[in-house]
Design goal:
The chain is of the alpha+beta class and 168 residues long. Strand 4 (136-139) and strand 5 (142-145) form a beta hairpin. It has helices spanning 27-40, 56-60, 67-93, 112-119, 157-163, and strands at 44-47, 97-103, 124-129, 136-139, 142-145, 149-154. Strands 1-2-6-3 form a four-stranded mixed sheet, sandwiched between helices. Strands 4-5 form a two-stranded antiparallel sheet.
C-alpha cells in the first residue's frame, strides 16, 4: 500500500536459487550478485558490510585473539568494503542511488575506498543516532533507547537529510 517496488536481500541470511547463502566473501558469489544487480538495476542499493573488522570494541580485545584470525577478518572486510564502494559508484554513474551504513566511529570510514567515494561531490556523509529512529533495548531495568551513532553515506540528498538526526 506504500507503492514500494519489492527488492531483494543478498546476505548470509538469504539464499540464492541453489539454496546457498549469499556469502559475499566468495568471489563467485560477488560476481553473481553483481550480475544480478546489473540486470535488475535497482533504484536504491543499500550496503551494510560486516562490522567486526572495523569495530572499536573488537580492537579492545585484539590482544586476546589470534592475530591470523584478526588479519583474515580485516582482509575480508576491506575486500567487501571495496566491492560495495565499486557498486555504489556504479549506481551513481547510472543515475541511481545507494545508501551505506556503518557505525559512526568504525575504522571503515578511514578506508581508502571509502575516502575516495566520499570525495565525489554527489556523495553525502551524515551521522544519525539510532535512538531517534526508535532503537531500544529491553533489560531487567526496563526499556531504554540506544543512542548508537551511525554513519551513513549516500548520493540521495533527501535520504541524507532524513538520516542526519542527532539525539538531544
Amino acid at each position: 500500500h506504500l507503492g514500494c517496488i519489492p527488492g531483494l536481500a543478498l546476505d548470509l541470511t538469504t539464499l540464492d536459487e541453489n539454496g546457498e547463502p549469499w556469502n559475499l566473501s566468495l568471489p563467485d558469489m560477488r560476481r553473481k550478485a553483481e550480475r544480478l544487480i546489473d540486470e535488475q538495476q535497482p533504484i536504491l542499493l543499500i550496503g551494510s558490510p560486516m562490522c567486526t573488522p572495523f569495530s572499536n570494541i573488537q580492537n579492545l580485545n585484539k590482544n586476546k585473539r589470534d592475530p591470523a584470525v584478526i588479519e583474515d577478518e580485516i582482509t575480508r572486510g576491506r575486500l567487501h568494503l571495496a566491492w560495495c564502494c565499486k557498486l555504489y559508484m556504479k549506481q551513481v554513474a547510472r543515475g541511481a542511488y545507494f545508501l551505506h551504513e556503518h557505525p559512526a566511529n568504525a575504522d571503515s570510514w578511514n578506508d581508502t575506498m571509502m575516502k575516495e567515494s566520499m570525495k565525489d561531490p554527489r556523495v553525502y556523509q551524515v551521522i544519525g543516532d539510532m535512538c531517534c529512529f526508535g532503537m531500544s533495548q529491553d533489560d531487567e531495568l526496563g526499556e531504554a533507547l540506544i543512542r548508537k551513532p551511525t554513519g551513513f553515506m549516500t548520493n540521495a540528498e533527501m535520504i541524507a537529510t532524513r538520516l542526519a538526526r542527532r539525539c538531544d
